[in-house]
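=== Structure Prediction Worksheet ===
Name of assembly: unnamed complex
Input type: mixed (protein and possibly other molecules)
Chain count: two
Listed entries:
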Amino acid sequence: MTYFPEEVVEHIVDFLGSHGDRNAVSTVCKAWYQVDRLSRRSVFVGNCYAIRPERVVTRFPEMKSLTVKGKPHFADFNLVPYDWGGFAQPWIEAAARGCPGLEELRLKRMVITDDDLELLSCSFPNFKSLVLVSCEGFSTDGLAEIATYCRGLRELDLQENEVEDHGHQWLSCFPDSCTSLVSLNFACLKGEVNASALERLVARCPNLRSLKLNHSIPVESLNKILARAPHLVDLGTGSFTIDNRSETYHRLINSFFRCKSLRSLSGFWDASPFCLQAVYPICANLTVLNLSYAPAIQSADLTKLVGFCFKLQKLWVLDCIGDKGLVVVASTCKELQELRVFPSDVYGAGITAVTEEGLVAISSGCPKLNSLLYFCYQMTNAALTTVAKNCPHFTRFRLCILEPEKPDPVTNQPLDEGFGAIVRSCKNLRRLSVSGLLTDQVFLYIGMYAERLEMLSIAFAGDSDKGMVYVLNGCKNLRKLEIRDCPFGDAALLKDVAKYETMRSLWMSSCDVTLGGCKSLAAKMPRLNVEIINENDGTSESKENLSDQHKLVLCQQFTSVSNDIMFTSNDPDVCRRVRL
Amino acid sequence: MDGGVGYVDVDALKATELRLGLPGSDEPSEKPPPPTTTTTTTTAARPSKRSLDEDRAARREPSEGGRATSTRATKAQVVGWPPIRSYRKNSFQAMKTEAEVAGLYVKVSMDGAPYLRKIDLEVYKGYKELREALKDMFKCFEGCKGSEYAITYEDKDGDLMLVGDVPWEMFTSSCKKLRIIRGAEAIRGLGSSQ
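=== Predicted Assembly ===
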């Protein structure tokens, strides 16, 4: 193969879509490394502390799209202190210096400031797309910079970020010459947005296909917007409360009727049952429906709505849909691939309206189901076994029984056999979250059968070190392992330290590992970044046991990262990250 | 701070304290120092790891015939559980607050009464208070048929349910209207319950 001219190798390599495949290509030989390096357009950095930004930029000078992920996944659940890190600044600065041709930036769980957004907006003349997911640290002032200076912006997608509200002027900062928008999502903004500026913006962007509004946009505005943008494919409604006898309501029905291209609906923040009826005409075309932020819609109305959605492929709902509602989903949505059922009672007082019955119904009615996130009150081994038999195509299976360590309520047994059935049947399983009462046995099954598993989340499970060892020994493709409140200690942590070099990251909190164990690991594996997050005032560092305030985070590291990036502050009251 | 689990002997400490006042007289306002443990956390009442293991071992007994509620502190107090993104939690909290401001008014009807009443469920802390308030409200209509009645409610699904079966919060979130049933129907229904 080395006799092929570079152009040919490049042409072949271009067909490779996944980052993993391109990474593999680059390790074959120096020539191929160079070819990949100079032709790589899309770069994915799964952990922002694994490699220095400068290194990435130097290696891939023709980079057009950069994706960076920051905080560990458990940061979503407040297990990572707010000042832990994950700063976008060094990445934007490095890219500004080394890759001025950058067109797209996607960040997840990172801290990005208004200054960073300002730098971004003036450093990349061809910048087209900004996607921020679960980020924080910026305000609407930063958005104003993007709107003002990013000529030719196609996509501004803000998903579930914490954004400080400094007023509604930012939207008006899109100049009259801006006509290029294809996707605009500001659903997570808490404040007012200038509705008339929005209407004018939509009117002058003929290519707009995806628009997600926030709570402040009234239905009257939605009507005008839909009138101007009948080619919308993906819509997130704003406020959705109207009197169903009003003129506005009738216009709304007409507006929806005219949107023949609409395939995806979300929003519905304060939707009342009547208003949902306006949506009935287009239900038959929908492939994606997200009602998970509409707690006011009760089961009967939800069920009625979903009953019209024959083509639905992705459904996100609240558990108030109930088992009965899920039966209707099962009989209607034969194309369903992804289902997420969230609890409407977010503080987990433990009572939800869905049980194993709903899940079993879905599994028998929707054979194409491959992705599941299911918060429920209880689960049985029998149900899981049935689900495993009905749906062998799961790639993502996340089950959260709200009460920790809850056994099968019928047999009072742990749920080992049920999850065992899932991993045995679903040969393509890549992501798994387990819950309920579980012994080491379930981990034996996972290690034995979950060959393609890449990410595993464990909480309140297991009996001994053996559990963790089964997983580390067995799952060859494991990349991310996150564990909380399990009786796994130093023996498990240190059993197979070489394994961690094949993984992206390990998280352990409220387990039985000790500081000594972590130090030992760091000493054995100098190339790993072994870090203790200490939420205390620092005085308990001398303790041998890691208490609840200590968390172990471990990640692969390709270049040594200097301490000034690691330590976020010398102030003892602030989170201390100690690199061992 | 030493690393061991230490409980300060409060009485012994008090005895050695130098204070003004006659010996034997206790200062009621004085607070004894709290016992120190290594596992005190900012989240309330998380059990120490040792007791957690004991809990787990105890719970392994399958013959135990149904598990009692977890000895972990109420689930709401376990940090980061259930695993819901804080963005989602915060959104719901904001929506809930908005609803709370509005109050939770439901109609109350009573068999035989000429008109209905409306009450704000959020004013009451539990079923006892609710019953008393309703009794008070409909006092004037208690006729010669005697005071046998059952308080029922219509829930989210439109079903008529007996008040008192489910936890209070669950009731208030699902109750659409109340109906006081009187007479023979009520007595029959109540016969089998507590």
